[in-house]
Amino acid sequence: NLSKNRCFQAHQVVVIMSAMTFEDNKLEIAKFLYNKTENKNDYEMCVDALTYSSSKDELRNYIAAMN
């Protein structure tokens, strides 16, 4: 049962991220959609979809701060 606010699955976020050309945009959309994602335990796949380790660290830090 999906709540109104959590309407994405982590794999869908990866698909949306892949439509972005620039790493900054991928990171921004991953952060924006984190609280709108139902299966946050699988969000590591979104981290893996990023190219640069600095971006991966930034997303992991963001997730840690949100929990």
By secondary-structure content and strand pairing, the structural class works out as mainly alpha
Let me know the largest β-sheet: none
**Rg to the nearest angstrom?**
11 Å
Poorly predicted residue ranges:
none
Helix content: 55-70%
- Inertia-based shape: globular
Mean pLDDT: 93
Number of beta strands: 0
Can you write the helix and strand succession as a string? Answer: HHHH
Question: Kindly, what is the distance between the CA atoms of the first and last residues, rounded to a whole number of angstroms?
Answer: 21 Å
Strand fraction band? under 5%
Count of helical segments?
Answer: 4
Summary?
With 67 residues, the chain is mostly helical.
Question: Your description of this structure?
Answer:
With 67 residues, the protein is an all-alpha fold. The protein has 4 helices and no strands. The chain has helices at 10-18, 23-34, 44-48, 53-66. The radius of gyration is 11 Å and the shape is globular. The model has no long low-confidence stretch (mean pLDDT 93).
Please outline the helices and strands:
Layout: H1 10-18, H2 23-34, H3 44-48, H4 53-66
